[in-house]
Amino acid sequence: MWGVNAGSVIYWYTNDDADTWINIPGALSDIGAGADGTVWGVNGGNQIFRYTGDQDGSNPGPSSRAAPATSG
């Protein structure tokens, strides 16, 4: 599970009792994860970003929300 707080700080839930939530570098205003594990986010400047586990990068186009589809 992924989340962002009111300060745009990104967190990833690890399901590990010792360190349940891990802070991820960067800042996003919205985040969502797809069924395939791809994570999409939008920053305060409405830029879209994608993280697939081994790489991240911006994607063209403005948006204010991130809502991955279940497929394709």
Describe it.
0% of the residues lie in helices and 49% in strands. It is built from no helices and 7 strands. The strands form 2 sheets. It has a 4-stranded antiparallel sheet with strand order 4-5-6-7, with no helix packed on it. A 3-stranded antiparallel sheet has the order 1-2-3, with no helix packed on it.
Please state the overall shape, judged from the principal axes of the Cα atoms. globular
End-to-end separation in angstroms reads 20 Å
Kindly report the average pLDDT value: 79
Taking strands numbered 1, 2, ... along the chain, how are they ordered across the largest sheet?
4-5-6-7
Percent of residues in β-strands:
over 45%
Helicity range: under 10%
Could you give the order of the helices and strands? EEEEEEE
Number of strands: 7
- Unreliable spans: none
**Oligomer description:** single chain
Radius of gyration, taken over Cα atoms and rounded to an integer in Å: 12 Å
How would a crystallographer describe the biggest sheet?
4 strands, antiparallel
Helix-and-strand structural type: mainly beta
- By DSSP (H or I, 4+ residues per run), the number of helices equals 0
